[in-house]
Specification:
This protein has 267 residues and is an alpha/beta fold. The chain has helices at 15-26, 45-48, 62-69, 80-92, 106-119, 131-144, 166-178, 242-251, and strands at 5-10, 30-36, 73-76, 96-99, 122-125, 150-156, 199-201, 204-210, 216-224, 227-235, 257-260. One of its GO terms (molecular function) is 4-hydroxy-tetrahydrodipicolinate reductase.
């Protein structure tokens, strides 16, 4: 019998973290060995997510928890302010990071890739783990070859800290790989209210909507003379991301270096 993949979860008491904990506890080839969250007390992680006690107690000291539990993989859904430091710490300890956190710059990713290569371990930074969202990105990039006039609208709850979302930025990057920069609209266009046309990216616009009660939605609107094409993905529950997280935990054990984007795992 093969050894189970030992997994630690950072931000374990958060809404995404709880789903990750539940997923790891229910996957037959994974073992939950640590959960870390600064804002939570020493609760059993199984009880925290409504399952049987698992014998793993929440910690509030990341480095100590990782050193003592010796996981193979760290799954992190915390926030942009801690993303780089958590990733770098994991790599230094020989732990493969799977980061569902935005806020990494291209320079950050290059540095973390170098660190992973030196340690001969894999890492993943993924703005979105939803297989449906990844397909939306891929379809939009493919369609942009034929519909180069486009805009992106993304919708999230009003407590989301970053705008635009990591998913919309990744979509824009994929589109820009196959679509030459094209300045759209009337060159004499004037914004009467600053920002009303959205953020500018490589010739097109990204619009961020933040309202209570919305979970995660994105649409890419494309148009040309006489027709329009809309490619949209809606997420209704955090469980939608968990099959992708499980795939990432397994895949990150098989290569060296830092990969940016879950789409690399979807054929």
């Amino acid at each position: 019998m093969e050894r189970k993949i030992r997994v630690a979860v950072v931000g374990a008491s958060g809404r995404m973290g709880r789903e990750v904990v539940k997923t790891v506890l229910t996957e037959s080839d994974m073992e939950l060995v640590a959960g870390v969250d600064r804002s939570s007390g020493p609760i059993d992680l199984g009880r925290m997510v409504g399952l049987e006690e698992c014998g793993v107690t929440m910690s509030n000291d990341l480095e100590l928890a990782l050193t003592e539990s010796r996981p193979d993989v760290l799954v992190d859904f915390t926030g942009p302010k801690t993303a780089f430091s958590h990733t770098s710490l994991a790599i230094r300890l020989g732990i493969r990071p799977v980061m569902g956190t935005t806020g990494f710059t291209p320079e950050d990713i290059a540095e973390l890739d170098k660190q992973c290569q030196e340690k001969e371990i894999g890492g993943l930074i993924a703005p979105n783990f939803s297989i449906g969202a990844i397909l939306m990105m891929k379809f939009a990039a493919q369609a942009s070859k034929y519909f180069p006039h486009l805009e992106i609208i993304e919708y999230h709850g009003d407590q989301k800290l970053d705008a635009p979302s990591g998913t919309s930025v990744k979509t824009a990057e994929l589109i820009s790989e196959v679509r030459e920069e094209l300045r759209q609209g009337n060159p004499q266009e004037e914004e009467i209210i600053e920002g009303s046309r959205g953020g500018y990216y490589n010739g097109f616009r990204i619009h961020s909507v933040r309202l209570p009660g919305i979970f995660a939605q994105q649409e890419v609107i494309m148009a040309q003379q006489g027709q329009a094409l809309k490619i949209r993905h809606d997420s209704y529950d955090r469980a939608a991301y968990m099959p992708g997280v499980a795939i990432a935990v397994r895949k990150v054990m098989t290569y060296s270096g830092m990969i940016y984007g879950f789409e690399h795992f979807i054929d």
